[in-house]
Amino acid sequence: MANQGRKIKVLFASSEAVPFVKTGGLADVAGSLPRALNQKGAEVSVIMPKYSAIPQEYQDQMKHIAEFYVPLAWRSVYCGIEKLTYQGVNFYFVDNEAYFKRDGIYGYFDDGERFAFFSKAICEAIQYLPELQVDVLQCNDWQCAMASVFLREFYQSIEACRHVKTIFTVHNVKFQGQFGDDVLSDILGLADNPTAAGQLYCDRVSVNYMQGALLYSDMITTVSPSYANELQMPFYGEGMDGIFRRRSDSLRGILNGIDVDLWNPKTDKMIEYNYSAGKMANKAKCKAALQREFGLAEDPERPLVVMIGRLTTQKGLGLVRYAMNRLMERGVQVAVLGTGDKDQEDAFKYFDWTYGDQMCARIAFDNALSHRMYAGGDILLMPSEFEPCGLSQMIAMRYGTLPVVRETGGLQDSVVAYNKYTGEGTGFRFANMNADEMANTLLEACEVFWTEKDVWKQLRKQAMETDFSWGRAADEYLDIYYGLHPEIER
Ligand code: ADP
């Protein structure tokens, strides 16, 4: 391929992407980073599974452009490729109804097979879709991790694949894709390749897809600089810390951005009253509307603390449960939106039932409601045990809802702690996994809310004026792409 004056071509593989299907932050990233990269002059396409959960209006717009058979150990499995261009980005959907025509997207007994298929299909697509001409394959999280391994082990002799450099991006090291070692012969077709098999074993009986990608990819990235450091520590590394330390020269942390057009209180159609940093009056109306909607006392003087996210241990919910009585005694209102572990859901339902007009828990995944909560809250609480990047705190700041966060991962990299001497800050931070420390910090924030109205307004303004767009992150990714292909002129 001639290298002068051409764009670098990136295939961005993800198991979810907004607006097609979303369970967490990965979908937001896959739905907005490629567009930002294209605006900067790269040519990024996205490849993802065609789930039946994708809304029909998008499925109707897809065009069938190719089909081939994917070798998966002893199987030869049908794979269709459907294409849809959305906001200038080409999305390629991997179609196989046996694997992806199901109610949910993860959590099936054969996930090891479904996502090994997806990973292999990515390699086949690079081979069979001439329009792709991939320079860089960027795989996100374990669901497509095996693509980096397959590419090196099975596709090196193929012209279209030989030149491809690989990046693996860790969005959450907690989910690694670990399966019994029977997958080596039954699915991956690597049982007779002792070198490859050796790289995949994480203990004597389990195979780990993410570990494969960490060892086979040319570069590793993760979603914040602090998380890149934390991954090298045993506490955060989930058994992979040794590999992250060994590969620290090839590891970069790039803080995610958010889609600032989608998340914009000035134009957001999902909120009743729009506002901006310069014209804040309507935020109080959003708060009153939210209090009404949740059956909370409609009182502007009560700080309304919102939490939006998966209800799992990762999110530091143990601290919130422990501190709930203390917060209620001080007259704080708390509203939670999320789904997750049953014991967490039950605990928050219990608080809802116990604290009547002061606490509300909505156990649901509801995008429109999340917009109303970002707009109507005063404070967003995010005391995560670990947080690779976290988008909620950035969205909250964009809506002038000040975050109270634990100093970890992307929370530490995106929230500037309030400093009462200099007046700087976009939120409040605490250091330790300690419920009293969290409650102290949250109540200090409430104290500012109650007694120093001007400071509160100024902090809100600073938060709303912070630039969380993808531009900066896109530049850093481009540095990596071109660094992997010095022969392509930038
Ligand atoms: P994670 O990726 O760990 O789930 P992030 O903070 O990075 O957490 O991203 C979560 C994204 O999902 C945010 O955009 C948040 O608003 C959204 N979200 C999480 N839970 C819900 C829910 N129950 N309803 C609506 N949106 C949700």
Q: Give the averaged pLDDT, no decimals.
A: 97
Count the domains. 2
Distance between the termini: 15 Å
- State the helical fraction: 40-55%
CATH superfamily of the largest domain: Glycogen Phosphorylase B
Portion in strands:
15-25%
How many helices in DSSP terms? 21
What fold name stands as the CATH topology of the largest domain? Rossmann fold
Descriptive overview:
The protein is α/β, with parallel strands linked by helices. It has two domains: 263 residues, Rossmann fold (3-Layer(aba) Sandwich); 186 residues, Glycogen Phosphorylase B (Rossmann fold, 3-Layer(aba) Sandwich), CATH 3.40.50. It is 41% helix and 19% strand. It contains 21 helices and 17 strands. A nine-stranded mixed beta sheet has the order 3-4-5-2-1-6-7-10-11, sandwiched between helices. It has a six-stranded parallel beta sheet with strand order 14-13-12-15-16-17, sandwiched between helices. Helix 17 links the parallel strand 15 and strand 16. The chain starts with 8 loop residues before the first strand and ends in a 6-residue tail after the last helix. Adenosine-5'-diphosphate binds next to helix 1 and helix 16.
Characteristics of this structure?
490 residues, alpha/beta, 2 domains, 6-stranded parallel beta sheet, 17 strands, 19% strand, binds adenosine-5'-diphosphate
